[in-house]
Amino acid sequence: MVERVKTGIPGMDVILNGGIPKRNVVLLSGGPGTGKTIFGQQFIYYGLRHGEPGMYVALEEHPVQLRINMSQFGWDVRKYEEQGLFAMVDAFTSGRGEAAKREKYVIQDTEDLGELISIIRQAINDIGAQRAVVDSVSTLYLTKPSVARNIVMQLKRVLSGLGVTSILVSQVSVSERGFGGPGVEHAADGIIRLDLDEIDGELKRSLIVWKMRGTAHSMRRHPFEITSKGIEVFPDKVLRIGRRFTVEEI
Prior knowledge:
Mean pLDDT: 93
Shape: globular
Low-confidence stretches: none
Structural class: alpha/beta
Radius of gyration: 17 Å
Strand content: 25-35%
Helix content: 25-40%
Number of domains: 1
CATH superfamily: P-loop containing nucleotide triphosphate hydrolases
CATH topology: Rossmann fold
Distance between the termini: 28 Å
Largest sheet: 10 strands, mixed
């Protein structure tokens, strides 16, 4: 029996045949505005509500703003931080500013992968994290793509090695078919691709599970929506993208 970690995203666990296999490192890839950060935050908050401590590594946005954004969906992580069940790793401010001085876990230099991994390990051990999100891992190798696979592998060793089920957010351009860096798709245990396509003058959101080690999964492209409660996936529908798009019941 494969032990699974539920994403808590309506419809997503149906597509994944019950959830993400425990310890898997999943690359959540997509262009701007596709909902990657919301997906990661929803995954973390569901775990917190169900007694699974979580860690969020903020590389692209101020931790204060991330907490505010989460609270707008009703996901208030501050009480879990106070209980020692949630850790925000600040890899954005480099410790600059008054707000940054109040953060417990601060990366002074994101170019120093050793420091990043050391503080991630400390945060995981402090709270007994079972879930983690790194948002976004692309920031770590944006200017040096040749080391992308090595960075993902080093993160995988510490996260998976400590029993954590993880989502690594990966940025790609709107037109890019890849997953955010050479070789990273081979290093990750799973890949979920989020897309936002303009079809007949309207933007349509969809996702597809490209791969997921340890489980069978849907091979179809499913539409999803972002609501006031977060992401909702429609496992009973498929979005076909061609010259004309269709949304079909399945």
